From TrEMBL:
Family that this chain belongs to: Belongs to the Cyclase 1 superfamily.
Identification of the protein by name: Kynurenine formamidase
Listed Polar residues bias regions: 327-341
InterPro entries tied to this protein: KFase/CYL, KFase_sf
Keywords from the UniProt entry: Membrane, Signal, Transmembrane, Transmembrane helix
UniProt-listed GO biological process terms: L-tryptophan catabolic process to kynurenine
SUPFAM superfamilies recorded: Putative cyclase
Taxon lineage: Eukaryota, Metazoa, Ecdysozoa, Tardigrada, Eutardigrada
Start-end of Acidic residues biased regions: 298-308
Transmembrane regions: 374-394
Length: 399
C-alpha cells in the first residue's frame, strides 16, 4: 500500500481475478438468450413403431351393446358411388351409420348424468395422459365376474408407485383376445340378454377410492364395461365415474401390449354434438421406449447393457411383454406429472433428415413421421424479470 489510498480502479487492476470477471454487457446478452430460450418450443418425434393403435376397426363385426343390437343400430357402410365418373376419373364415396356405444368408444358424463357434459364438450386434454395398466387377466381366468378391489389398486401402487395425477387407467382383463366374439365377450350364450352377462369389472368401493384419492382423467377396459357383467342393470361404477367427470373407455384394443407404466395415451373422440358417447381413436405413444420422467439415459449406457439382464430377457420375449425402463424411478415424485404449463400438439410430416445417432439415442428422438411440439408457457418468463436482474447486475458490477 505504501501509505497510499487505493482507488477502485487500482483495486480492480491489482485484483488477482480481474481478467476472469464477466463484463456486465455479456451478462445482459446471456440473460436475453435465456429469455428467448425460455419460450422456445420443444419438438419430440416418434416413429410409427413407437405408436400403438388401441382402437378396433369399425366394420360389420363391430360389437355393440345389446340394446343397440336389438334395435338394429349397428355399423353399416353403404356405397354412394364407386367407379369411373363421366370424365372417366375414378371416384368413391360411402355413407355409414353407427350407434355411439360400440367398438372402441368413450362414455361422456351425460351417459349417466342428467346434466352431464356431452361428448362434444369434453376438454381435449382429458383423453391425453400417462397410462397406467392394471393387469387382472389371471384373476379373471379364475373368476369371470372378478371385481377389482381397493386392495388390488393398493398392491399395484406398492409395486409400481403412486398412480400419477391426470393418468389414464386401463384394465387388462384378457378380454381383448375374445374380440369380436359377442358371446365370449359378454360371457353368455344368450346374447343380447343382459341378465346373463359374465365379465370382470371394478367394484364400486374401488371406483370410490380412485375418485377420492387419485385424480385420474379416465378409466378404460379391454372388455365391454368397467362394471362387471352381473352389474349391468345398475351400472354403479358408471354412475360414480360420470358424477366425478371421470371418462369411461370401453373395448380398448391391444392393452396387453402396453407397459405397466411409462407410455402415454392420446384419444380423440368423434365430435357428436349432444352425444352421450362417441367412437374413439386411441393410440399409445412411446410404448416401446418409455419416457423416463425427465431422467435421460446416455446411449453408451444402453449399448453396454444399461437395461440389465432382466430387461434383455423382456425385450426378447416379444411385444406382449411388459417392460419397465431401468431409469424410471417408480417413486411418486419422479414420474411424469401433467402440467398446465405445458401445451402439446401432434402433427404429421414427411420423414425428416436423419439426426446424428448419438444425439438421437441420448434424447430418445427417433427419425419418424409423427411430431409432438411442446411449448413451455412459463408463469414468470425471464423477459419479465429481465429489467430487475439487469439493474442488480449493474449495481454489482460497480462494487
Amino acid at each position: 500500500m505504501s501509505g497510499r489510498m487505493m482507488t477502485r480502479s487500482s483495486l480492480s487492476h491489482h485484483h488477482p481475478h480481474h481478467h476472469n470477471i464477466i463484463p456486465p454487457t455479456l451478462w445482459l446478452v446471456l440473460l436475453m438468450i435465456l429469455s428467448i430460450c425460455n419460450c422456445l418450443p420443444i419438438r419430440l418425434e416418434f416413429d410409427d413403431e413407437d405408436m400403438l393403435d388401441l382402437t378396433y376397426p369399425f366394420n360389420n363385426q363391430t360389437v355393440y351393446y345389446p340394446t343397440m343390437e336389438q334395435l338394429g343400430f349397428t355399423f353399416q357402410l353403404g356405397t354412394v358411388f364407386r367407379g369411373l365418373n363421366k370424365q372417366q376419373h375414378y371416384y368413391s364415396a360411402y355413407w355409414f351409420q353407427a350407434a355411439e356405444h360400440g367398438g372402441t368408444h368413450v362414455d361422456a358424463p351425460s351417459h349417466n348424468q342428467i346434466n352431464g357434459t356431452s361428448v362434444d364438450r369434453l376438454p381435449l386434454g382429458q383423453l391425453i395422459g400417462p397410462v397406467i395398466v392394471l393387469d387382472i387377466s389371471q384373476k379373471a381366468k379364475r373368476n369371470v365376474d372378478y371385481l377389482i378391489t381397493v386392495e388390488d389398486l393398493q398392491q399395484w401402487e406398492e409395486k409400481h408407485g403412486k398412480m400419477p395425477k391426470g393418468g389414464i387407467l386401463l384394465i387388462c382383463s384378457g378380454w381383448g383376445q375374445k374380440w369380436p366374439n359377442r358371446n365370449a365377450l359378454f360371457g353368455t350364450k344368450n346374447f343380447p340378454d343382459d341378465t346373463s352377462f359374465h365379465f370382470p369389472g371394478l367394484a364400486p368401493p374401488a371406483a370410490k377410492w380412485l375418485i377420492k384419492h387419485r385424480s385420474l382423467k379416465a378409466v378404460g377396459t379391454d372388455g365391454p364395461s368397467v362394471d362387471s357383467g352381473p352389474n349391468q342393470r345398475q351400472l354403479p361404477v358408471h354412475q360414480l365415474f360420470s358424477a366425478a367427470h371421470v371418462l369411461i373407455i370401453e373395448f380398448v384394443a391391444n392393452v396387453e401390449k402396453l407397459p405397466t407404466v411409462g407410455a402415454t395415451v392420446i384419444g380423440l373422440p368423434m365430435k357428436i354434438e349432444g352425444g352421450s358417447a362417441a367412437p374413439l381413436r386411441l393410440i399409445g405413444v412411446n410404448w416401446r421406449q418409455r419416457p423416463t420422467g425427465g431422467v435421460t439415459v446416455d446411449a453408451e449406457e444402453e449399448e453396454e447393457g444399461g437395461e440389465g439382464e432382466e430387461g434383455r430377457k423382456n425385450i426378447a420375449s416379444g411385444v406382449g411383454s411388459r417392460r419397465k425402463h431401468p431409469s424410471l424411478n417408480t417413486s411418486a415424485s419422479s414420474r411424469p406429472r401433467p402440467s398446465s404449463n405445458v401445451t402439446a400438439t401432434v402433427v404429421t410430416r414427411p420423414t425428416a433428415a436423419p439426426m446424428p445417432r448419438k444425439i438421437s439415442q441420448k434424447l430418445k428422438i427417433p427419425n419418424n413421421r409423427a411430431v409432438i411440439n411442446l411449448r413451455w408457457n412459463s408463469g414468470l418468463p425471464l423477459f419479465i424479470i429481465f429489467p430487475f436482474l439487469s439493474l442488480r447486475l449493474f449495481r454489482y458490477a460497480q462494487l
